[in-house]
């Protein structure tokens, strides 16, 4: 993890693997690899940072296990281990970094929302509260930028208005989700 206890790309992939196995149950190696590739590509697009994590490495580290067969070579049925479930819980509770252009935050948020129901109710509320706080911080940053750029020529102000509206909508959505939990 980064110093701020947020996920690095390889840890986001670990979260995707472990969450998928915990949520959906054991999967064949090829099916799991294909499902992860599809999900990751659709959220952040092709990324070299995200392609490096091997299911074999997770198996070697004891986070997943072959329930039959040995691994990739015989398309083994893979399942999460107890250590994998502990790692999943740790990864789900990690911080989310301030928004950035690299797409990693969007992936981490998508993964947290995809697997949020697998956490206890208090942890779910903590995670949504943290995501709402990120939206509030983003709104403060964008509002400051808008004030500083007021009256400038071009299309920047209109683009900021769009970004602010989207951040306000995300905040409202997270607050509504928090109220439902």
TrEMBL record:
Pfam family, one: AphA_like
Organism domain of life: Bacteria
Keyword Chaperone found: yes
Keyword terms, alphabetized: Chaperone
Keyword Chaperone (UniProt): yes
Name of the featured protein: AphA-like transcriptional regulator
Provenance organism: Azospirillum rugosum
Source species taxonomy: Bacteria, Pseudomonadati, Pseudomonadota, Alphaproteobacteria, Rhodospirillales
């Amino acid at each position: 993890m980064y110093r701020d206890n947020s996920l690095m790309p390889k840890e986001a992939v670990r979260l995707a693997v472990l969450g998928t196995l915990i949520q959906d149950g054991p999967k064949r190696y090829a099916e799991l690899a294909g499902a992860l590739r599809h999900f990751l590509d659709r959220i952040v697009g092709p990324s070299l940072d995200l392609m490096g994590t091997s299911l074999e490495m997770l198996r070697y580290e004891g986070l997943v296990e072959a329930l039959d067969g040995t691994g990739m070579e015989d398309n083994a049925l893979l399942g999460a281990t107890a250590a994998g479930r502990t790692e999943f819980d740790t990864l789900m509770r990690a911080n989310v970094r301030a928004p950035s252009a690299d797409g990693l935050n969007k992936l981490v948020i998508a993964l947290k929302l995809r697997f949020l129901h697998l956490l206890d109710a208090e942890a779910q509320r903590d995670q949504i509260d943290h995501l709402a706080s990120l939206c509030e911080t983003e709104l403060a940053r964008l509002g400051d930028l808008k004030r500083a750029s007021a009256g400038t020529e071009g299309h920047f102000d209109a683009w900021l208005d769009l970004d602010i509206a989207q951040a306000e909508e995300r905040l409202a959505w997270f607050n509504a989700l928090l109220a439902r939990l």
